[in-house]
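$ ./design --mode recover --in tokens.txt
reading tokens...
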């Protein structure tokens, strides 16, 4: 089987279930595992490099108003790969190539590849998507899914009965966005109470006045598209701006690795959040950094 994955999360899942050898095409964002970088890149972004958080938001908003695509699919590369299966999404036009674009491209090329749409909104649906990809590629997934569920249960048991901090997790910083989809559930399972965001729904733009009104106990900076270093820089910029009330701890996390991409490493994110919420401050936490105590 020859597979083109148009999502970093599904690329990660395909490698995790042993189908990595069948992956022949990926996106410019597919950077995990490292072997994924050896595959041909078939989609790129229209967003210019070097923009600030606010400039990116402005670019995206204006592009959406015009109906412009934020991602470009290389039809020539897709044609040359002779795919049997193309994995894409219909969840967020800001995140990846939309399924309609893929369908149009395949029709134009006369390609008969199967198109599989993966659109999880909750943690359970993320785990179910692993099984779906396993079924589509004839790979066993039970052991992986069971192990991930067991780790989640260990976290939930460890935080049971503890006080729940009110957590404002930012999926974007300028302007601020409250979390959606699986992220509020990650906070809940880690023993926190999510502020403003709702599980299973889209992330929403909010204001600093609304955030301050909720009186969060801590802020977690997890901007979509950023790894830990970039998230740390944005968190420090937030503190410097004066928007974050004094006395509220601010953490930065590796959003790309364990929050923004619906794959196995979301469980790493839940474990990190539990350590942030309930572990001794100052302890080293993989994928997380205390910016202001």
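writing sequence...
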């Amino acid at each position: 089987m020859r597979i083109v994955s148009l999502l970093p999360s599904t690329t990660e899942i395909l490698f995790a279930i042993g189908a990595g050898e069948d992956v022949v095409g990926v996106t410019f964002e597919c950077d995990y595992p490292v072997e994924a970088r050896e595959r041909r890149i078939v989609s790129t972004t229209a967003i210019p490099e070097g923009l600030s958080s606010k400039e990116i938001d402005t670019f995206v908003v204006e592009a959406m108003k015009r109906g412009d695509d934020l991602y470009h699919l290389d039809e020539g590369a897709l044609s040359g790969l002779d795919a049997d299966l193309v994995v894409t999404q219909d969840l967020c036009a800001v995140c990846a190539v939309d399924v309609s674009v893929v369908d149009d491209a395949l029709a134009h090329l006369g390609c008969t590849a199967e198109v599989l749409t993966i659109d999880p909104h909750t943690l359970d649906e993320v785990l179910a998507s692993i099984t779906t990809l396993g079924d589509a590629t004839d790979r066993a997934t039970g052991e992986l899914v069971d192990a991930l569920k067991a780790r989640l249960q260990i976290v939930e048991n460890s935080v049971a009965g503890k006080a729940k901090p009110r957590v404002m997790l930012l999926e974007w910083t300028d302007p601020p966005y409250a979390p959606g989809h699986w992220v509020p559930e990650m906070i809940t399972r880690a023993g926190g109470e999510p502020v403003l965001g709702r599980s299973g729904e889209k992330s929403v733009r909010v204001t600093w006045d609304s955030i301050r009104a909720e009186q969060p106990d801590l802020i977690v900076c997890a901007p979509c598209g950023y790894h830990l270093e970039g998230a740390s820089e944005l968190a420090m910029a937030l503190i410097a701006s004066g928007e974050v009330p004094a006395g509220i701890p601010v953490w930065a996390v590796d959003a790309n690795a364990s929050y923004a991409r619906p794959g196995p490493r979301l469980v790493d994110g839940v474990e990190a959040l539990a350590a942030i919420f309930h572990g001794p401050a100052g302890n080293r936490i993989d994928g997380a950094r205390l910016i202001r105590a």
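exit 0
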